[in-house]
Amino acid sequence: MALKRRDFLLFVGASAGAVALHSCASGNSGLSGSSKKAAPKSSTVGFKPVRGSMPLETDGIELTKQVADYGSYEVVDDLVLPEGFTYDIIGAWGDNIGDSRFGYNNDYLSFIETGKDEGLLTINFEYISGSTWMQTYQQVIGQSLPFDEVKAAVANSKGKINAFALPDSDALKAKIREISKEGLVDQGLGVISIRKTADGKWRRTHSSADRRITGISGLEDDRYLKATGPAVAIFRKQQGQGYIDGLGDRIIGTFQNCAGGTTPWGTVLSAEENVQDQVPEPVYVDGTSFDPEALPFQIDDKTVDGRANVFGLAGNKYGWMVEIDPANPDDYGTKHTWLGRFRHEAVALKAVAGKPLAVYSGCDRRGGHLYKFVSKGTINKPQDKANSQLFSDGMLYAAVFEPDGTGRWIALEPKTSVNPVLPSTVEGNLVPLPKRPEGGIFEVKTDADATSFKEQFATLGDLYEGNETEKQGAILIDAHYAANAAGATTTARPEDTEIAPDGSLYIAFTSGSPGDDGGPDKRIFKGLKGETPWEYGWIVRLVEDGDESAAMTFQWESFAMGGEPAEGGAGFANPDNLEFDANGNLWMVTDISTSKHNQTVTSRVDAEGKPLEQTDIQGIFGNNSIWVLPTSGSNAGNAYLFGIGPMECETTGLFFTPDQKTLFLAVQHPGEQHGMRKDKAAETRKFTLKTTDGKEFVQKRLVPLGSNWPSKGTTDPPKPAVVAIRRLDAEPI
To answer: Is 51 within the bounds of a domain?
Structure first.
């Protein structure tokens, strides 16, 4: 019997307690694909899949024709969509928004309908791509910044300087402040009002609701962000072990805003992700921050980071989930600390009348955890804006995945036992734990050291200082390391969470490779034949026991696995943002690292004849792309290629209008590696590919160098932008 690639469990040795999920085989330890299956005769997704860079079982090309059809391939610097579809640009970096501008690297999108064919579009602006941002800043924004002067001034200190310590009268500090300010302005959130015209295109209407919430909101305009939950007790400290900014519970700005979510009551949640690029991430035992000097300003030809340094921003105030009401022009955001501080890259809400609110989020780092917040109060009416008060009290939990397909939640509270993750179970054998009594973290690389840590500290409360509220606040501030200490499963970069129409949770685990932060549990995150590390990622389905938001146990299964079809994968690599359409199809975009896009693969083996690592052959997957996966019927778990992004970009922020006739999409960092494409520069590269049944062949691929998207003129700078995708016949997507 041929299995779908979504199936994961072993057929022998299954735990007697394991409960099979809907449309899932039972048994198996770990994530996998399945045995190879024949290509389906037809798709039920309503479009003809576009032709990607490698043979797929869903592309409709017969096995005997794959070598000929894929022997040559041209990559296009454009957003490639199926026949009968088009896109319109809604806004791009540098466009006006209120008293500011459209930021850089737009990510999560949320559309709140305010009337027929009109509404408010909320946009996350995640980060700046240093090299391309500096190269094109003057051309796009119309003013210059002293990049070269500052680079030269800090060259002798390896491009780093603690600008915070410089006197305010120092000319270099003023220049660093100018650069840092502009970089932080290009991060955060934006709200724009839009309306669909009679010809089906969306246009901006520039209403009073249009506004920016930037990385420096509050610094000069008193538009501070607010906070709720136990960490506020830490923010209000007037003295402590570490750095205190003196602002109390007022917060300057939000930045690194990546994924997000929309509540049933019309507010938007925005996830602060890689804040460690701008502020120090580790904290002291009492939850206070490391001094700004711990992360100095840094600038070189590729990087402009540590931009919070010169402003003296406190690191413990960043890395949270931010809520805003797009319809309230006076709302500049609230950080809900009960949802934890970590590298947020996902949020999904389960809001059922009469039940507690459940909020699922992932920490996008190698070895990051899956989290769930459960509110103390219950939902009355899911559409009532008073539900935002539920974020202010509850409990944060971290997930433990068992190899038999079961799981449980661990409360991150002072009384929880210390039971660290063992390095021997982790890919890369590295687990960071809270360093005591000094504060910060230390790397545990042996089971003996983890066991010694457990013998020294009995509970999470023993790792933090203060009264009970302050200890709880410090745990939430240090959530990732507290979760490691409590024994939560280290996972494979959980980059998005999405609630399906049936109430189950889908999770995109992007990459199974280890790194400097740690790695995933190798008993769970592995390939079809038990391979670890498995770089290409998985989409996992989780069902709470009893379908209860507050359940403390769950069941999980693999829905689809990344990788080449010949190796059991569904054809994509590194799944990221997820979104369901009205028919229950799962839409997904990929997050292949820019440096790997179209990277030449002349051979599958090294000089000694050993197979190359998966990270060395990621170039076969080409550009980042958009996929559709049915979740029911005969094609459930199969992946259909809907679109391909422009050069060196990431496609993000999938969001459907209520009538399903428009799909909003963010295209971030086009030209991130080579910058602006000049004179239609391109080169031909060779790739050793495989047919869907595993036969190797060589492809010649024409690859543009850099990007001119979205304007596409030969001298146009690449700009992150938001688009509206629609069918030419005006029917639902």
So the answer is: no
Instruction: State how many domains the chain has.
Output: 1
Contacts of 192 (CB under 8 A, 6+ apart): 90, 91, 97, 120, 121, 123, 204, 206, 210
Taking alpha carbons only, the member of 611, 591, 623, 445 closest to residue 527 is: 611
pLDDT tens digits for range 110-164: 999 999 999 999 999 999 999 999 999 999 999 999 999 999 999 999 999 999 9
Place of tokens 């059809």: 69
Q: For residue 98, which of 304, 298, 326 has the smallest C-alpha distance?
A: 326
Phi, psi at 91, each rounded to 5°: -165, 155
- Select from 234, 550, 555 the least CA-distant residue to 395: 550
In this structure, are residues 665 and 722 in contact, taking their beta carbons and an 8 Å threshold?
A: yes
What the block records as the tokens of 562 is 């990344």
Residue 303 located in a structural domain: yes
Q: What is the Cα–Cα distance from 183 to 293, expressed in whole angstroms?
A: 19
Q: What is the DSSP string of 113-156?
A: EEETTEEEEEEEE----HHHHHHHHHHHHSS---HHHHHHHHGG
Domain membership flag for residue 696? yes
pLDDT in tens, 419-429: 999 999 999 99
pTM here is 0.95
Cα(393)–Cα(230) distance, integer angstroms: 9
Helices marked H in 37-87 — which ranges?
66-69
Q: Is residue 474 part of a domain?
A: yes
| Residues 79, 707 contacting (CB under 8 angstroms) | no
State which amino acid sits at residue 687: F
- Strand, helix or coil for residue 732: coil
Domain hosting residue 270, numbered range: 63-727
Q: How far is CA 337 from the centre of its chain?
A: 19
